[in-house]
């Protein structure tokens, strides 16, 4: 069976001036054209050729020996080449670009943008792209706890967390408890694998372990205090929402950072504020 969106090795069953016709085997009823400019030198009846199958601009099934950037069911980052009234088009490495319908976008895309998509066959039998990639991702990643991974954010759920495709093909999620800043759809991030779940999906964090992150958080807290002219208008008993809004930290992370600064003598805590005292150890007075 000839399958659209896939690479198949097919047999040359007929030759014409404008190309060759390929089928699964001699005598097969279904065949597809490989245009003459795509036909390898020395090809003859019975030759086997590896091709990719798609529909051309006239909606005819056609074969190509060019290498597509994505196959059916795969997820890849592709460039948006145009935005029209019927949707956007993305470059899949062939003469014809593939449609990314409006209803398959997770945010309005723009020309030149790099977007994470999966390739599927729509109701009309044509190849199309979707940014709703969750069903196409794999849980069989090679990663383990504490590995660093590159991801693309593809969904943000305020109740659950931030969903990110690791290497653009594996399930990954930053749980809500680890979301300390705003993320945007399509954003490329580097994360740490906190846990490999029993189902193979990865729990991620963009922060280091607490004892490693604490120094960075402490430096950031000092910087914010300086922006308040050295006096923060609340102390470590502030509401978690206030701390999150001001520092992008959880209350526990904030208290760890403040505890370190207290130990180093860089701040003092009053009934209603946190005050800068003098330079943190290792800081320059200049």
UniProtKB/TrEMBL annotation:
Family, similarity comment: Belongs to the CvfB family.
Organism: [Clostridium] aminophilum
Residues in the signal sequence: none
PANTHER family named in the record: CONSERVED VIRULENCE FACTOR B
Top-level taxon of the source organism: Bacteria
A GO term for molecular function: nucleic acid binding
Protein name: S1 motif domain-containing protein
Stored SUPFAM superfamilies: Nucleic acid-binding proteins
InterPro entries per UniProt: CvfB_fam, CvfB_S1_3rd, CvfB_S1_st, CvfB_WH, NA-bd_OB-fold, S1_domain, WH-like_DNA-bd_sf
Coiled coil: none
UniProt domain S1 motif: residue ranges: 146-207
């Amino acid at each position: 069976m000839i399958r659209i969106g896939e690479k198949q090795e097919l047999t040359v069953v007929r030759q014409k001036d404008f190309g060759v016709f390929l089928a699964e085997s001699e005598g097969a009823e279904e065949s597809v054209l490989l245009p003459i400019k795509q036909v390898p030198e020395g090809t003859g009846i019975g030759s086997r050729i590896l091709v990719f199958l798609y529909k051309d601009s006239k909606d005819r099934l056609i074969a190509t020996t060019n290498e597509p950037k994505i196959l059916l069911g795969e997820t890849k980052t592709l460039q948006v080449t145009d935005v029209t009234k019927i949707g956007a088009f993305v470059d899949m490495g062939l003469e014809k670009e593939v449609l990314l319908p409006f209803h398959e976008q997770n945010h309005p895309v723009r020309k030149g943008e790099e977007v994470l998509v999966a390739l599927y066959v729509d109701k009309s039998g044509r190849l199309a792209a979707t940014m709703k990639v969750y069903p196409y991702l794999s849980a069989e990643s090679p990663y383990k706890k504490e590995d660093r991974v590159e991801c693309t954010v593809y969904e943000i759920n305020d109740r659950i967390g931030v969903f990110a495709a690791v290497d653009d093909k594996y399930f990954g999620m930053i749980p809500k408890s680890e979301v300390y800043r705003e993320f945007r759809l399509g954003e490329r991030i580097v994360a740490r694998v906190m846990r490999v779940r029993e189902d193979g999906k990865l729990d991620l964090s963009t922060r280091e372990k607490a004892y490693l992150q604490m120094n960075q958080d402490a430096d950031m807290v000092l910087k914010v205090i300086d922006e308040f002219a050295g006096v923060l208008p609340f102390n470590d008993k502030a509401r978690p929402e206030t701390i999150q809004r001001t520092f992008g930290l959880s209350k526990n992370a904030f208290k760890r950072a403040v505890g370190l600064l207290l130990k180093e003598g860089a701040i003092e805590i009053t009934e209603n504020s946190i005050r800068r005292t003098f330079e943190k150890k290792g800081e320059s007075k200049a």
